[in-house]
Amino acid sequence: MTDFDPQAEQLALPQQKTSRIPRFYRLSVEQRLAYLSRSFGLSNTQIAELRNGQCLRIRHAVNMVENAVGVFGLPLGLGLNFLVDGKEHLVPMAIEEASIIAAASKAALMIRKAGGFMTETDDPVMIGQIQLLDVADIDAAVKLLHDNKAGILAAANRPNERMVKRGGGAFDIETRIITDDRDGSRMLVLHLLIDVREAMGANAVNYSCEAAGNLAAELCGGRSNLRIVSNYADRRLARASFRLPFEILATAEMDGETVARRMVEAGRMARIDPYRAATHNKGIFNGIDGAAIALGQDWRAIEAGGHAHAARSGQYRGLTEYEIDGNDLLGRIELPLQVGWVGGAVNSHPGVKVLRRVSGVENASELASLLAAVGLGQNFAACLALATDGIQKGHMALHARSVAISVGVPSQDVEEVAQRMIALGDVKVATAERVHRELQDSRMVDEQTGEMPIETWAPGKVVLFGEHATVWGQPGITASIDVKLKCRIQLDPAGPRFLQPVFPEVFEMPESDLDIRLFSQVVDEALASYGLQQAPIAIAIESDLVPGMGLGSSAACSVALCTALRRYAGLESQRRLDNTLFEEVQKLESIYHGSPSGMDAATVLNGGVLWFRSGPPRETLSIRVPVQATGIICIVEPGARTIELVQQVRHSRELNQARVDKIMARIGEITALAGAALGGGNLEQVGALMNENHELLADLGVSTEKLDAAVELLRSMGAFGAKLTGAGGGGAVIALVSPEKRYSMMQELAGKFPLVLPFELGSGS
Description:
The protein is of the alpha+beta class. It has 27 helices and 20 strands. The strands form five sheets. Strands 11, 12, 13, 14, 15 and 16 form a six-stranded mixed beta sheet that branches. It starts with about 30 loop residues before the first helix and ends in a 5-residue tail after the last strand.
């Protein structure tokens, strides 16, 4: 049974893509996700990642920031009702402040009744600045720069040839002489005007400035100092506007003309008073920043440019204007919006790709238009509330929910606690705690089953040596890796239930290929093993391991599941090669693989680098590697079932036993040599043995053309050695590389394979 039904409660939802979804806020999270799944073709994995905040994993984060220690989440919601230039848009917004999304959606609904937002955007022109100092004759230098414009532009475009081919690049220059008001000294600044096409453009502009800086300094007879993009992108403005008839503005207590007049008065204060303007503009960026973050934009650059534009007259002012025209209220906003549709987090953050599809935006210009509309809508909603009912009334329901959450109310009870507090007219922490206590007793878990929920983790693994040979009595060497799987057990009166497992969906594949049936069979067997067939629990599996890639996803699932159920049942659970637990895990592994050697289970249970022989008797030995041994995993192509590959090799042996046994024996010899090399820290020898092991696996017929090509590529890039890992027939390859090369290699490989992961031998232990 799954915890997500794409068909759930669709009667309440529109059948076509639209941003107008009445009563969307009343739907459960699952019903909202059902709408996204159906309307935008999102996979179960993508839906699960949105729901659980797992679009960005630590494996992505380590390549995005320095000293990564985790991933910090923000609530993600949808702004509704946005009609911009006649096109429907849902607006993903990542924001923690209460009421922002509701306010933006309410404003967009009012404005769509009168035709929606109208926008216009400038060409995507960014400014690069070159600071020129120690110039003896500034006026003469200005003339020299303009006389040599062609050469400067050629130098500026040299690092950005691809952008130039797409019709962009540096196309003009400007010179500015600025004066220091403290001492009257003058400074020459050269501006490069650069069309950055679909990019935000900061990197391209910086490259151009650095490339042209020396030439500019030489022409002026001075020196260049700063060479950097300007985040005041006043050549890249976006404008949004709306026209609302008075009747749409009218409230029960106030006619529309009065509301419009009050809106104009509110806007006038922000225009002339910087104290009000700061709060006024903060509200604008509440909306813009939330959408910019969700859509992978540099929201800090957007804010910096917006605030600079607000102060362009010499006084800081509001960015919006309101005026009355006949029987209508007109609203306008103008601000720089340096946004990109390629590069940056747009390409590196998996969640951004999903949210772009949801937004309906198709290019950078459209994104700038949408953000301008969001900023105007957000400000309109705030000013409307301030000018009519006051801002706190609309905050009450969300404030009540926040108070409930702050005292630890479970998500399923938050709305009930909030509504009770509102009904009591007493939205306070003490009241929330009291109401929460009244609901708690019925949801208490029997202490004998331990604390709930229970969460257990198990690492994945890579096979360094010995695939297939271990089935025939030869040794193997494996290593745990820091890519993990989580099993979660929570109370469920309708249980026991097995919720649909969540795995990374690197390749498009039919649902059956995810082995849901096998997972259910494994869970049934595990429940029976511990006498928990009637337990009131739900079991969820969430994994960073791509299944079918030889990374031990089934063993990790079996270990995490057995460990969690043991804890629930009150059984003592050992992880490091406890014989009882090993046999329990092997029993589940046999459902996946038929007759598994036990190597995967032993590795996941033990952790580290492991020498293994299935026996009898079973041999396991931890290998201590005295040097840092790092590697790369490249997910190459969809993998085949392990049981099918094992049967294929068995059939080959039936046809030619002598040949296959010779290969198996040599793999065993290589494994023995590799164990000694690993223990001695000789990574060059380990790599050479990996190369030979791969060739032998290819001779067995379990490699593929794509796996062979990937191995060859990794070797050519300087890896110590590379080979397929796991059963073969597709899947992944691994390479042992020096720590100094790993990052640059991963950067280059990222565009060649669906997924590239780092690992360190034994790091998952």
